[in-house]
Amino acid sequence: METILKVTGLSVSYGHVEALRGVDVDVRRGQIVSIIGANGAGKTTLLRTISGMVKPLAGTIEFEGKPLPKKPHKIVAEGVIHVPEGRKCFSGLTIRDNLLTGGYVFKGRDLNEDLQEQYKLFPILEQRKNQYAGTLSGGEQQMLAVARGLMGRPKILLLDEPSMGLAPIIVNQIYDLIRQIRDRGITVLLVEQNARKALGVCDYAYVLENGRINLQGTGEELLGSDEVRKAYLAG
Ligand SMILES: Nc1ncnc2c1ncn2[C@@H]1O[C@H](COP(=O)(O)OP(=O)(O)OP(=O)(O)O)[C@@H](O)[C@H]1O
Ligand SMILES: [Mg+2]
Predict the structure, then answer these.
(1) How many angstroms separate the first and last alpha carbons of the chain?
(2) Domain count of the chain?
(3) Closest listed residue to residue 206, CA positions, set 25, 18, 7
(4) What percent of the chain has pLDDT above 70?
(5) Which residue is closest in CA terms to ligand 1's atom 12?
(6) DSSP annotation of 86
């Protein structure tokens, strides 16, 4: 399958902190690609750099064979949509209005069909559409954040730790949804500390350690690797 997103030699520093050091990542269209790594490995930095919120020191990011634009709103318009760590829902807006913010790039277009599509995928959001997002549970807020991302009609969805802080049964629901999203033809780049789940769902994966990719392979290969087992699957 063709490469949709190609990251080459990406380096990012925050002052003296080298967060990414020459990272190469290839994402094939239609796949789920996972990046696993511990706290501070550089996972969020990688996603923020792809979506234009952090400027790299070096390296290139190509999307569909062309360099990605530099400005975040132009990157969104290309179909590269970032669902941030910690969900970042607008707690004082209703669920419906939160969803509509995800479609802001289509100013002037009727977004009702898009809303209905999200309600089909996330029935809980339809039931509560007129309530404030702040009244949702953590798992429901994660679903809202993903649904808001889908309102931007992504070609690729960048998901930052969707399982963070959620009970196992809710994590399973979120992962089922990630599979359904891939099955609709949307490519997913998933970063996670939850290595077991992320490796279980993905078509291909990378291990990020101290800003460097030090292992890669299919989810199955990495689940079977001694190094991954010791460092990321213990307990
Ligand atoms: N805005 C910033 N200013 C300075 N240093 C930063 C900033 N953001 C991140 N860092 C540092 O860059 C490194 C990578 O951070 P990043 O948030 O990308 O890691 P992460 O893998 O997402 O971690 P976590 O699993 O805890 O979310 C860390 O050392 C972090 O302290
Ligand atoms: Mg992070």
Answers:
(1) 36
(2) 1
(3) 25
(4) 100
(5) 19
(6) T
